[in-house]
Amino acid sequence: MLKMENCTIYCKVQIDEIEVVRTRLSILNPQKVEVSDGKVECTVESSVVRISRMVFEQRADRFSKLCADTMNYFRSKRDSNESGVVRVLAHLEDTNAVLGVVADPSFDRIAMLPELIGFLAFEFQGLIFNGTEMLDRNGEVIA
Structure pTM? Predict the structure, then answer.
């Protein structure tokens, strides 16, 4: 079960515009959705979730650094779950976009945040990093 307010989704699917993510938010029946500067902000019953998109632009950009740092983190965990770490590293190698999800603490209770995160991970072939573990779209720990 996904329980978190913030996470990073490493996506295999290329997400050229944040508008693609905005269209997926209709499952929440939001009161307001604002798109600006590569970010989308969705309001449901006065609670807000913000989703930002990052893609490769050039060598050593923020996207490249984030992916490399995450790979190094999981390489250091190799002893704990070899097959899971190998799966995560392979996925990170194939990552074409990263979605950062940050929600108000009350958003989970109101708007099905775990379902939204799992849905985005499914739609964009992503794995979910909660800061310590990499999860599949169902919230099962991979590594």
Answer: 0.92
